[in-house]
Amino acid sequence: MEKSLLNFFFLFFLAISPIVFAASKIVNVDFVGLAKTDEASIRRRLVSLEGSVYSASAVKKDIKALYETGLFQDVAVEKEDSPGGIRLIFRVVEKGMIGSVRFLGNKKIRDKELNNAVTIREQAPADIQRIVESVEAIRKLYDEKDLYLAEVTWELKALDTEAGEMELVFNINENKGVRIRRISFVGNHAIEDKKLAKQMKTKVKGFLSFLTKSGKFDDEKLKLDADLLTYFYLNNGYIKVKIGRPQVSLTRNKKAIAVTIPVYEGNRYTVRNVDVAGDIITTREELLSKVKMAPKQIYKKMTEEEDVQALAALYGDQAYAFAGVSPSLETDESEKTVDVVYHVERGPKVTVERIDIKGNDVTRDKVIRRELQVVENAPYNKSALDLSRRRLFQLGFFEEVNFSLPRGSRDDRVILAVEVKEKPTGSFSVGAGFSSLESFIFNASIQKDNFFGRGIRGGVSANISKLRQEFSFFMTDRYFLDTRWIFSLSMHRYFSALNRDFDQKSLGGTVSFGREVFPFFDISLGYNIEDISVTNFSASVPAFFQQNASGLTSSVLTTLAYDRRDNRIQTTKGMYHSFTSEYAGHGVGGDNDFWKMYAESRVFFPLPLKSVIKARGMFGYVNSLNPDPVPLFERFFLGGINTLRGFDLNSIGPELSIPSSATGGDHRFTYGGNRMLMFNLEYELPIYAPAGIGTVMFLDAGQAWAENESIDLTAIRANYGFGLRWHSPFGPLRFEWGFPFKRREGESLAVFNFSIGQSF
């Protein structure tokens, strides 16, 4: 019975299925209302096509797909019975086309910039969604220009009725730009508003806001400020501090922005105990000796971070490259104390399997490898890696030096990946000018700090004027012939009639060999030979200075140098100290007998805004080794761009008053000292860092004393001044104006100095 019933239903379904299928089959799909839109491209978006089975849900999807094209402002579907099935009719109303886009009322932002911001274009459908997006884009652009009150509306105007084209007009009311006038805090009791505001990058509008851009609203910067404020509280013991979301509002007169920041300070905690736990490779006492956090101190997040780095470095020096140090804090609310425990997980010991170098398109691999203190197939060492980074930066060839440690062939092996970003290390300049003293001046120079990518530094230069001709060449190779020896060579030819009392001509050169005896400390021994001629003396020069003024100088030089600058070319921090001793005499084949020594120290301090304070001190001493005085050309003179910038060249030093005529009047003759002391202090601030343009303010002080004078610090001359510096493609250019303190009769009110080359 059941089997017969099933057979009946099966035969019935087979009989009626062609009729049902035919009744629901789509046999035709038509569009009504298409004028500008391509029908074929629209059909490709439909699910309901000829030959498919009709489905109400599929038709809904088709309507949605047609709206999403942005081409239609209305879509309707009609279903009609048709021979063999169903006919679908899509009735659409096309959006008008944008014939032109116009901006009205914009004075502070040009049309071109607005056009780049909007998302709707000419000859595109008048899509309302894209128009709204464009309005928001315009408002955002005005916000970026600090014009937060700008109002933007839009309207469509008929342009060509037959073609259905319209003009889209954005009406802009710019109003006035607003800046931040007030930053206040709510909930802070221990630390006052003024001190908190100093920690933020966001600043209120100030007197120099047109230069500093202070008062500019930046949402991303405000988010960073929340982190800076949190870090500041953590460094002052407030472990549970919370900085709320800044509230930004317009003042009542709508001319400024007020920023309010909610703060929950919590308690201030003192350290009770400090401990280490986990994988202790030496002793607990030795590890604790490396940390700075100590009981009875106010908790500081910065100290905690330094301790984590110190412990990680200690493990890193024992080849545990991936040692992790995690501090945990347990607070006692009643005592307001905190216990700090550093948990150490050492991981496996690691060997450097190989070293890969990338990014050095010019610099050869060996120039980089010889500065690395980590070698292949040796245990990893964190301190050696840090020293390697400092040495690579010190070369001055790279903008960036990055190390990474991808896995090697086994878990206990790593690849040291060294990636550098090179920067230009050469300069070429040709220039001409006019000076009231030298008349026409021509100068040219070529300098390269990384010749052929081999790390060789060298250059040639020429300066020619009516009163001066100077030609020079130098080169230095710190790895001469791929050895650890430092080789230096310099040659020069010089003539000068700048000194009103005599002319000087010289031809000579220096060669030296040295070696780095331990990191950053060099010792070198050199030989200098120079043929010097001093002629055309004025009547003011005493006879004893005219005697033996010319001759051959043959000397031996010994130099000790300690160089911890971060970059030898553009230094921002570190120090440099040197001491040089020079012996010249008949024993080494010369005509002049003297012993000369000079010491120099330079210190560099980085400051905010990428500015730098530079300090230099110099001391010099020279003594004749025979009864004749020290030759004029070996004596110490101050004045000029490399010494005291507020005084004329070589005008500072011991003087003689020489009668200029029988009827009276004296002429001052500066003959230089045998001892010299000088100090320079500079503050250098970038103005436009991408172009290498900056400004400098300076103070100089110094004096030279003769053999018969004691060193009198009250006789020191000083000056102040300012200048511009440009690290141009042709080399570093210096334009500086110096002004003397306590100006004497005959001295200039101001001295202008120009030079091509680095400052100290």
Descriptive report:
With 760 residues, this protein is of the alpha+beta class. 18% of the residues lie in helices and 44% in strands. The protein contains 13 helices and 35 strands. The strands form seven sheets. A 16-stranded antiparallel β-sheet has the order 18-19-20-21-22-23-24-25-26-27-28-31-32-33-34-35, with no helix packed on it. Strand 18 (426-435) and strand 19 form a beta hairpin. Residues 8-22 have low confidence and may be disordered.
Structural class: alpha+beta
The rounded Rg comes to 40 Å
Helical fraction equals 10-25%
Q: Report the sheet with the most strands, covering strand number, pairing sense and barrel closure.
A: 16 strands, antiparallel
**Largest sheet strand order:** 18-19-20-21-22-23-24-25-26-27-28-31-32-33-34-35
Oligomer: single chain
How many strands? 35
How many H/I helices?
A: 13
**Beta-strand content:** 35-45%
Morphology:
elongated
Unreliable spans are 8-22
Mean pLDDT: 87
**Termini, distance in Å?**
112 Å
